[in-house]
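To: structure subgroup
Subject: Chain for Friday's discussion

All,

I'm putting the inputs and outputs inline so they're searchable in the archive.
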Amino acid sequence: FIVAVQAALASGFFLYMPSYLALTTHFSTPKIETLSISLIALYAVSCFCFGALADRWNIIKMYKLGLLLVFPMSTIAYLSIAKNFLPWVFVVIPTIVFGMIGSTYCGILSTLFPTNIRCSGVAVSLNSSVAIFGGCSPLIITLLSRDSYTIIAPLLVIGMTTCLSGLGILILSKQRMVN
């Protein structure tokens, strides 16, 4: 579950966003492409910066902070896009928060497995989570958008996966307090 929100964000925010913008706004294709490329570059820089910070700060606290911020920031981003109200400004902040999660989840995953099976444990858990949550997110968003005609369908998926990731990190934190 720890990877759920990251996988959904990667597919729902970065991969699905261009088609979502094309359907819900009157942005031109070059504008959408520029925004998408800029956000991916910003995400990479954000991951690098938060990754460096995670080496000096508690990685689980950073991940939890990212989880607390991701849904409110995503809500602001999607609603500002839907209302055509400064979407450039309000999409930058969630992208930076996504970097906080993207730079920490692999480090957390690596602590879940003993050294002798760490590589295969991370590989199986990460790839299965990306396949399930990342692969299903665009489909679920499309179905919700089509069936309910709601522009907040991406938020519903981000909210659901944020809760699942929060549950995963809560269980991990409780297990570590017991052990």
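Points worth raising on Friday:
Helices lie at 4-15, 17-24, 29-54, 59-82, 87-102, 105-111, 118-148, 153-178.
The mean pLDDT is 84.

D.
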